Amino acid sequence: MRKNIVAGNWKMNTTVPEGVALAKEVSDCLAGFKANCDVVICVPFTHLVPVCGAIDQAVLGLGAENCADHKSGAYTGEVSAAMVASTGAKYVILGHSERRQYYGETSETLREKVALALENGLTPIFCIGEVLEERENGSYNEVVKKQIEDGLFNRSAEDFGKIILAYEPVWAIGTGKTATADQAEDMHAHIRKTIADKYGKEVADNTSILYGGSCKPSNAAELFAKPDVDGGLIGGASLKAADFMGIVKAF
Ligand code: 13P
Fold this sequence. Notes:
By secondary structure, this protein is an alpha/beta fold. 44% of the residues lie in helices and 15% in strands. The mean pLDDT is 98. 1,3-dihydroxyacetonephosphate is lined by residues 9, 96, 168, 173-174, 212-215, 233-237.
């Protein structure tokens, strides 16, 4: 059966010493507490090696926030999936809306990234979600379905089973405006049905679908109580150990 997961996405925040201290604080909190979910932090590339050395990955998984769409070679400034895996990280966020929006990521590049992540043993946390206009004009279900179809439905059922999905309505990211628990549940159920139609009920039932967008200790429990919401991808509230732990404890 699918796992419940709380994952942090630090985005472009913290220096290396600050990040190591934060990661260690979260890891130490988790060591003294039996969480009812898997807990992961996704950190900037520069932080992966020192954070890996500072945490206990038995209680706190580690991931990157992106990886390259090429294997290796003349791609100045890029970081490959193999490089990420060689740090000890086990996860990678792919297709975050900020990368789609500011760095022109398309479903085509994302298919390459997903393939390379899987080849290197990384678990992709694949992000999908509509913008405000699409929420308001009612096209959000189709938009999200198409993101899943175009980015992931070239994979085998076996590969798909290794992927975590994160539904992040763009209008809820960093805005303080969370989707209601009912809005999240409706979309998550739609996502699960989309997966079931392609890969069958068993694969769909085993896929963890996280919610992201202004998730915080005060609203996490209500969101996580919904049957198809299997945890959260947390931005701002993952930058303070107490807030992040407050969300972990919502399970
Ligand atoms: P916030 O939690 O800051 O809204 O960010 C959500 C997010 O983008 C996580 O990937």
